Amino acid sequence: MEKIILASGSPFRKALLANAGVPFTAVPADVDERAVEAPLEDSGTTPEEVALILAEAKALNVSERYPGALVIGCDQTLSLDDRIFHKPRDKEDARRHLLDLSGKTHQLNSAVVLVRDGEVLWSDVPIARLTIRKLDPGFIGRHLAAVGDKALDSVGAYQIEGQGIQLFEKIDGDYFTIVGLPLLPLLKELRKLGAIDG
């Protein structure tokens, strides 16, 4: 079997791959995401394309250091219409995120790519659509106090696998896309490439 590298330090992504029985090494990419994203602003680039460009940048960065390895790159953007949200800087920023998302349907665009020796072999950007119920500002404050700094770890200021599930009214999309590693299409492609048993 060939060497598979996950170009991410995310504990969620590592756990998903490990639980699926994929043998891999995690090597976080050395990419300044905001620097990659900056020229894309006001360029007409869609949130889905931004996620894909960031995922490719991460995979290509790690691929340079590991010749011959199959590198998985991933990134996720959260978009509300054409606005892209970033991880909240602090609790106040997280509060604003949740107020902005309250009562609306947003998209999680989860890009995944496979790269070997600087060449993109495959990519996909599954989308999940999530509707947050109309939130009372007082509840938002209590919720953020309960979850603590975990609210700063994700673009939407929530973890759907934890107490964040209480924020939602409706979810269209699979769990893996929501947590940021579209596992089913990735496993299918790894089998097709002969990188895992299939």
From TrEMBL:
Where does the record place the catalytic residues?
D75 (proton acceptor)
Is the keyword Hydrolase assigned to this protein? yes
Gene Ontology MF terms: nucleoside triphosphate diphosphatase activity
Point out the annotated site residues (description: Important for substrate specificity): F12, Q76, E161
- Keywords for the protein's UniProt record, in alphabetical order: Cytoplasm, Hydrolase, Nucleotide metabolism
E.C. number(s) listed in UniProt = 3.6.1.-
Q: Where is the protein localized?
A: Cytoplasm
> Per the UniProt entry, what are the Gene Ontology biological process annotations, in alphabetical order?
nucleotide metabolic process
**Source species, domain of life:** Bacteria
Question: What are the annotated GO cellular component locations?
Answer: cytoplasm
* Cleaved signal peptide residues: none
Query: What is the required cofactor set for this protein?
Result: a divalent metal cation
Q: Which reaction does it catalyse?
A: N(7)-methyl-GTP + H2O = N(7)-methyl-GMP + diphosphate + H(+)
What is the similarity comment for this entry? Belongs to the Maf family. YceF subfamily.
Q: Which HAMAP family match?
A: Maf
The entry's protein name is 7-methyl-GTP pyrophosphatase
